[in-house]
Inverse folding.
C-alpha cells in the first residue's frame, strides 16, 4: 500500500494505541504532532514516503529550541519506532536510519553544603512534634543512621 497519506497510519500502528506513559505523550500523539506541525504544515509533505532525514532533523532542532533535550529525545524515539514499523510494513526506506537521538546532558542533583545542613539541623532541634518529626526525617537521610540498621 505505498503512497499512504500522512495521517492514515498513525492510528493503526500495532502495539502502540492507548499506551500512555505517565510522564509524556503517547507514541501516537508524538507521530501526529510531527505529521501535522512539520510534514504537512512546514514541509508540505502529504505522503509518508516523502519524509526524509532532513525533515526529522529539522523537527528535532525545532523541538530543542522550545523544549528540553530529554523531551526531544523521547519524541525522537517515538518517531523512530513508528518509522521502523512503517518501513517494514510498507517496504519503504526508513528516514531515521542512521540518525541519533539528541544528547541528553546529565543534570546534577543539587546537594546541601555542610553549612546548610548544620542550619537545617538547628532549625529541627527542639521538643515540638514538628521539630522531632523533621529531625527524624533528616536523620533517616543520613547514611550513617542507615548503616546502623535503621530502615530508610
Amino acid at each position: 500500500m505505498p503512497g499512504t497519506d500522512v495521517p492514515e497510519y498513525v492510528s493503526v500502528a500495532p502495539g502502540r494505541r492507548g499506551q500512555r506513559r505517565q510522564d509524556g505523550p503517547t507514541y501516537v500523539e508524538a507521530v501526529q504532532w510531527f505529521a501535522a506541525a512539520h510534514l504537512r504544515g512546514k514541509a508540505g509533505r502529504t505522503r509518508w514516503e516523502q519524509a526524509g532525514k532532513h525533515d526529522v532533523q529539522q523537527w528535532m532542532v525545532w523541538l530543542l529550541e522550545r523544549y528540553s533535550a530529554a523531551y526531544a529525545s523521547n519524541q525522537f524515539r517515538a518517531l523512530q519506532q513508528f518509522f521502523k514499523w512503517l518501513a517494514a510494513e510498507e517496504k519503504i526506506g526508513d528516514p531515521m536510519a542512521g540518525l541519533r537521538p539528541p544528547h541528553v546532558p546529565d543534570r546534577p542533583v543539587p546537594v546541601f553544603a555542610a553549612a546548610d545542613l548544620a542550619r537545617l539541623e538547628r532549625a529541627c532541634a527542639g521538643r515540638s512534634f514538628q521539630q522531632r518529626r523533621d529531625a527524624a526525617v533528616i536523620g533517616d537521610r543520613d547514611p550513617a543512621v542507615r548503616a546502623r540498621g535503621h530502615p530508610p
Remarks:
- The chain has two domains: 8-90, 114-147.
